[in-house]
């Protein structure tokens, strides 16, 4: 009996070590720990050796940053990355020097919600606000009728309708996506804003002024900030459904979004460069950038850069690729081998298996693994938890924990341009995320050969 009791305390201690924030912020968990403390205190008269276990539980209780009542009255903050367009501001020039503060459910979000005529209202709400509450706020400010829906309108015109119990929807928007509110019967009337088409001029001149090593360094610093801000539990909420747990996945959303941002940044810069010789130089720079990312174990951006160069709008630029020196062509072919998806990304998995932390993994593949595990296996069998499925999901979480088990320590390279300018640039990338528009620009800079 004593052994079982001590195992429970050990389990709670392990739970606390991997979910410290939950113990400090969740009133239900705090209530459970308090009840456990009372039970241990009562049992310690019969089992004196439980006195030490009681001290363990007391230390966990004392670690609470605030009581449940204090948490409710805690001052809400607006996270720098959650203002209007969701692009980072110059505030991050100082934030980048220190550990990034994870986005929390009580952080306030300021964003525009558009109508069909492209008028908008600006709303402020916490990250854990549901779609139902967003509709209520917008309806009141815009004096709209009933049967309203909130949806994302993507830059290509696609519309994604959110369910009323969805929460934390803003960080899950596509790169140039916008939130719209409309009566349900008018959904088909929604069209993208002109600004969603993305930039019309390249920043290749600015990129030329930056050393490739400095670019890779600043990209990796930012990627690591984003990666270390997310909690492993966010992967579970994301796969099983945030609404089921009433938890946000904002930090994971932003890290996954970063992959698309780097990918489309590469494609955007390539197709907006009208001069073929400059385009060749830019292509060489991106291949070098991918090589440095791979060397520094930033596989997240490595994959994104190579996928950007593999975009059909870029791969069809035959005049550009023909002028690429042989050694760069060979290097790019090696990159494509690492990215080969055959046999469940076997080459990539073998490559990662040989690496020691810190590692920035190819996050979309980890999410794919978890989704496949979840959808391919029942969570319950005859009202009993399927622990085999839980062990498989836990393996992915252990992979994330392993990748972050050592600090990322990179020596700052010599820079041609101000480090602050490079830092600001990589955290505020402007991209075209509409493949149709990318292809149009591609045909403009290199028309189809007759």
TrEMBL record:
Limits of the Ras-GEF domain: 211-448
Lineage top rank: taxon: Eukaryota
Keywords: Guanine-nucleotide releasing factor
UniProt cross-references to Gene3D superfamilies, sorted A to Z: Phosphatidylinositol 3-kinase Catalytic Subunit, Chain A, domain 1, Ras guanine-nucleotide exchange factors catalytic domain, Son of sevenless (SoS) protein Chain: S domain 1
CC annotations in GO: plasma membrane
InterPro entries named in the record: RA_dom, Ras-like_GEF, Ras_GEF_dom_sf, RASGEF_cat_dom, RASGEF_cat_dom_sf, Ubiquitin-like_domsf
Molecular function terms from GO: guanyl-nucleotide exchange factor activity
GO term, biological process aspect, one: Ras protein signal transduction
Entry keyword Chloroplast: no
Domain Ras-associating: residue ranges: 107-186
Pfam families documented for this protein: RasGEF (PF00617)
PANTHER family associated with the record: EXCHANGE PROTEIN DIRECTLY ACTIVATED BY CAMP, ISOFORM E, GUANINE NUCLEOTIDE EXCHANGE FACTOR
The protein's name: Rap guanine nucleotide exchange factor 4
Organism, scientific name: Patella caerulea
Top-level taxonomy: Eukaryota, Metazoa, Spiralia, Lophotrochozoa, Mollusca
């Amino acid at each position: 009996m004593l052994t079982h009791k001590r195992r429970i305390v050990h389990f709670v201690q392990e739970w606390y070590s991997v979910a410290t924030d939950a113990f400090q912020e969740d009133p239900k968990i705090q209530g459970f720990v308090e009840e456990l403390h009372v039970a241990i205190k009562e049992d310690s008269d019969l089992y004196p050796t439980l006195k030490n276990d009681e001290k363990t539980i007391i230390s966990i209780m004392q670690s609470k940053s605030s009581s449940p009542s204090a948490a409710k009255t805690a001052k809400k903050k607006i996270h720098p990355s959650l203002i209007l367009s969701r692009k980072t501001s110059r505030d991050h020039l100082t934030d980048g020097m220190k550990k990034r503060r994870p986005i929390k459910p009580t952080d306030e979000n300021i964003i525009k919600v558009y109508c069909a005529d492209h008028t908008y209202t600006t709303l402020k709400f916490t990250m854990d606000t549901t779609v139902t509450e967003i509709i209520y706020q917008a309806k009141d400010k815009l004096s709209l009728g009933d049967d309203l829906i909130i949806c994302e309108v993507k830059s290509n015109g696609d519309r994604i309708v959110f369910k009323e119990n969805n929460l934390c929807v803003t960080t899950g928007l596509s790169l140039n996506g916008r939130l719209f509110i409309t009566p349900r019967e008018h959904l088909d009337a929604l069209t993208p804003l002109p600004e969603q088409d993305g930039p019309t001029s390249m920043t290749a001149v600015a990129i030329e002024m930056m050393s490739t090593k400095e670019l890779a360094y600043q990209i990796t610093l930012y990627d690591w900030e984003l990666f270390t801000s997310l909690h492993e539990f966010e992967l579970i909420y994301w796969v099983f459904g945030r609404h089921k747990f009433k938890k946000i996945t904002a930090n994971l959303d932003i890290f996954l979004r970063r992959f698309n941002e780097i990918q489309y940044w590469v494609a955007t810069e390539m197709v907006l460069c009208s001069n073929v010789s400059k385009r060749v130089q830019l292509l060489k720079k991106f291949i070098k950038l991918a090589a440095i990312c791979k060397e520094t174990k930033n596989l997240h951006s490595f994959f994104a850069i190579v996928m950007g160069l593999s975009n059909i709008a870029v791969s069809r630029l035959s005049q550009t690729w023909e002028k690429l020196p042989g050694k760069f062509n060979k290097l790019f072919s090696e990159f494509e081998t690492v990215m080969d998806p055959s046999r469940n990304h076997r080459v990539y998995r073998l490559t990662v298996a040989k690496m020691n932390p810190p590692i920035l993994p190819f996050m979309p593949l980890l999410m794919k693994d978890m989704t496949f595990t979840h959808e391919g296996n029942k969570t319950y069998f005859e009202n009993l938890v399927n622990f085999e499925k839980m062990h498989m999901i836990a393996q992915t979480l252990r992979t994330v924990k392993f990748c972050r088990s050592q600090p990322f320590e990179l020596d700052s390279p010599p820079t041609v341009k101000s480090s602050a300018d490079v830092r600001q640039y990589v955290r505020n990338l402007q991209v075209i995320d509409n493949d149709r528009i990318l292809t149009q620009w591609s045909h403009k800079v290199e028309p189809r050969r007759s």
